[in-house]
Amino acid sequence: MPAKLLTLLLSLPLLLTVCVADAAPPKRSAEAEAAFVDKVNREYGVPKDVLRKGLADARYQQSIIDAITRPAEAMPWSKYRPIFMNDKRIQGGRDFLRENRELLLSVERDTGVPASIIVAIIGVETNYGAITGKYRVLDALYTLGFHYPKRADFFRSELGHLFALANEEHVDPNSVMGSYAGAMGWGQFMPSSYRAYAKDGDGDGHRDLWTSKDDVFRSIANYFVAHHWRAGEPVAEPAVRGPGAAAINSGNKNLKPELDLAKLGERGYRPKEAMGKDWPANLITLDGDAGPEYWITFHNFYVISRYNRSPLYSLAVYQLARAIAEGDAANNGPVAAE
Q1: Is 125 a catalytic residue?
Q2: Which position among 43, 73, 102, 125 bears the catalytic label?
Q3: pLDDT tens track for 282-318
């Protein structure tokens, strides 16, 4: 037997031991879990025995840690946009709008939130309800709340909201499925958002974001209303950059419209098409297929970003909503996204 092969065979048990060790879940912290139980019991009144059992049932998932370290929003715009702005997703949105026209129009009339925006949110989040998540929300929030130090406080808080939500809505937290980040339902609400913004649209006494379209549509619209969506106002417009214009809002860190069109014009940026009013505005710069893309964004763009802080996400929702609405105009459908 060749020496190299013998050496490899002799080393296999050690390699297997290392692999098994690497795959083992991290140790649980009894102290941290006890503090969590006390806090959630004190804040939301969830019985301690329920919380202890819930934590005991929770399982660490390495795939959740892997997923959160490579979010799609880390892509350049040129790669992110085609995920959502493609023929299949656009046609799916038009079909979804047509199939649910009456209910969507009713929600639009009541809230001022365009039906096309509601549909686009569902399209981006879950491909119109087809992909609502493969992870137990309990496992996702436990894993990130106790084993992802970078955002542990946030996810541990969301885990507390999950137990509170389960207590209020009489839901078994072991059965709730969602994304790797713990978002749930067609609109992918985090537990705190579910508790704060979900609506009982069909009047059955429950807020069901998985099977009740009335609840789903009105909950998404309510999220936008609560974050001050302004009906009839613009969302975003492509911009032209003048020669020598200095960069604005480097890194797209601030999405609030703290400038206005006049000030942007003075600094070398203007909308491709005149808008007829000096709206409060901001500027973002994205990496497009042909180089930098400049977009002037407005208050309603900031509202979309409350759903997901990424400017890529907000622009994808807006562009998808526009494409859906434009395809529906011939059928006298809901108004286009502003």
Answers
A1: yes
A2: 125
A3: 999 999 999 999 999 999 999 999 999 999 999 999 9
